[in-house]
Write a structure and sequence with these properties.
Length: 263
Amino acid sequence: MGDRNVVFDDATVYERFMGRWSRAVGEKFLTWLDPPRGQKWLDVGCGTGAFSQLIMDQCAPSVLVGVDPAPAQIEYARKALPQVEFRVGDALAMPFDNGAFDIVASALVLHFLPDRAKAFEEMRRVLVSNGMVAGYTWNRTPESTFAPYASMARVIKAMGLPLSLSPLIPEAAPEGLRSTLDKTGLRDIVIDLIEATQSYRDFDEYWEIQTLPFHPIGKTVAGFSDSDRAKLRASMHDALPPGSDGRISYSARAIVFRARNGG
């Protein structure tokens, strides 16, 4: 199973593929986090602004700023949430003063960062003393994947076909995440697992979205022969049978965390 670096430069397609999952797990995450209202928030790796919208809706922030390295994502987010400040920026060298925020959050971002320890150090730098770092990413191990594309990944692997995914990082599992948080000096660390369920209108909608050729699995499937794609489609139909209403429903699992800046 190969890993590849991923850059999302089509915000509209990203929203179709991951937006629904980001919102579903984000709502549960914010309920789990239960942050105080009226805080100064930073959304690291804000993407299309899906998580920023949830912060606005559920947390009544006094300030909310989003940062992301992809200009296309920032442009999309600015149009969707004109009341929020969005900036193009690198999570490893953020354009903010020390102690600028009360809460720094990252949603489905850690697996895209080449140096998670440095990213946590940056998050800690821009936090007030005793401020909170929090976030979530898809739960993955070398043996298992629990992301929204997990079902297709398992079937592709079982068929003996080549499979590429976003990079596997230690922080996608509890032990690795705790180790990195510990090393960066954060304290009061809490780690948990949460699940979210989503539904697709029918199998055709599921297949069309999951094989969009901008994601590693979609690109992989696009490279298959017509015969292999047909076999994969039939196998996926068996793996995810529709309900009585014809809809395809299943769950994905994220690892969530929160910690305090002891500096």
